[in-house]
Amino acid sequence: MTRSFSRIAYPLAGVVLVIAGWVLLCWIGNLPTVVLPTPDKVVRAFVLRFPLLASEGWITLKETLAGFFLAMLVGLPMAVAIANSRRLNLMFYPLLVALQSVPKVALAPIVMIWLGTGIESKLAIVWLVSFFPIIVDTTAGLRATPRELLELAHSLRATPWQIFIKVQFPAALPFVLTGAKVAMTLAVIGAVIGEFVSSSEGLGFLLLSATSQLDTPLAFAALLALSLVGVATYMLVELVERLVAGWLPPTAHGH
Question: Is 139 in the same domain as 119?
Answer without folding.
Answer: yes
